[in-house]
Amino acid sequence: MCFQIADCRINDHCLYDALRTYLIYNRSTDISDDDRHAYAAFAHCVHVLHNLSVILDYKLPYEISLPEMMKYRWTENLFDTTVFKINVSIVHLCLAHGIPSEKISFHRPFYNLFNLCGKFRSDLNADPPVPMTPCKESPQLAKIIKEEYEILTWEDTKDMDDWIKI
Fold first, then answer.
1. What's the superkingdom here (predicted)?
2. For helices 76-96 and 139-151, angle between their N-to-C axes, nearest 10 degrees
3. Does 2 reside within a domain?
4. What distance in Å separates the CA atoms of residue 91 and residue 109, rounded to the nearest whole number?
5. Does residue 89 contact residue 102 with C-beta atoms inside 8 Å?
6. Least enclosed by CB within 10 Å: which of 9, 37, 85, 89?
7. How far is it, in rounded angstroms, from Cα 45 to Cα 31?
């Protein structure tokens, strides 16, 4: 299934191989439109996620900094860690705002955001969110998150002290 966020297309099938290859091995100025769209959609997803957490006064389980993300020197593990953080954060946000766990697919963040926005459109007078975790709501989602976490080689960004202020 293809989604469009801020006029940027991305296939939401959890196979981000082209994006991974572009970010890790081929960050040149000569890129395809698909790579450009996928990276922009990925960045917009993080931006939307952050904005929703602020607007809805919801603390996300992981911090994902868009400005830092733009400066990353991507590695396989850093890419996987970032995708995991995005997926878990979106799952938490969806559960906290009444999306049933059966309608959430852990590996499809754009689909989940689409459903969350649909929920907001259909129910503008929603009650304040109830604190909830995937473990309480859905043992199946908790199991998927745990399995994904266990196969992940966690990597966070490192501060780059070699930047010079001009």
1. Eukaryota
2. 170
3. no
4. 8
5. no
6. 9
7. 20
